[in-house]
Amino acid sequence: MSGAERGALVTGSSRGLGRAIALELGRRGYRVGVHYVRSEAPAREVAEAIRAAGGRAEVFGADVADAEACQALVKDATAALGSLDVLVNNAGITRDTLALRMKADDWQQVLDTNLSSAFHLSKAALRAMVRAGWGRIVNISSIVGIRGNVGQANYVAAKAGLIGLTKALAREYGSRGVTVNAVAPGFIESDMTESLPDELKQAYLKEIPAGRFGRPEDVAAAVAFLASDDAGYINGQTLPVDGGMVMP
Ligand code: NAP
Fold this sequence. Notes:
The chain has 248 residues and is an alpha/beta fold.
């Protein structure tokens, strides 16, 4: 079966990596659920771009930090797309500061948005995938979830947690035709990285064998592969897309 018969929800696809993933899946013929929490107009533009290229897309707004909103999002997306065969847990935020200065709320917001959301959305989507005997979940982690990072205890814990969640779900549902994998982007040009100080960006650049920062399209290509039939025997893995920055 090609993308043409499948529905795919990409959380946080109004901007950045999620936008590129939604556009790529749209190009491959999936019925795409474009999702946002605040940026409705940019999300509508992404859906419009998919349709203009001959694809199909629907737009959904929901706060994934809210468990009930996650359940409603999966229900709405399944109804509007006809089926939800591919779930890309991409929505994420940072609230960076040293652990000693980190407020409980900064910790909780990042865990709720980046990690708990993936559990609630996956749980809501899995039942139908298991029933259909086919499904793909791709979690957008980060290389910092593998190697750690200063000033990001909340974000690193969430991204490492996503790798663990990926492995647990992969073991639970691998025998039912469902694969669960993670992509661990390195430094990718987006709103999230734009505001980092120039000295920090230059320091990161020195660590990247590819000699450049990543583009959202680099991540989208990896996600589209993991979502495809071709990746059916890849399960529970974390694929770094980082120009060689981390070699686990
Ligand atoms: P971004 O440009 O800041 O976009 C974040 C997206 O997440 C937006 O679509 C945003 O929606 C959505 N979002 C944020 N909070 C949400 C919430 N509570 N409920 C629903 N949606 C929410 O980020 P990005 O750089 O594209 O990153 C995308 C993912 O890749 C994140 O999980 C991030 O951690 C991961 N990642 C990024 C990099 C990088 O270098 N950029 C590296 C490693 C991993 P609105 O537009 O409506 O606010």
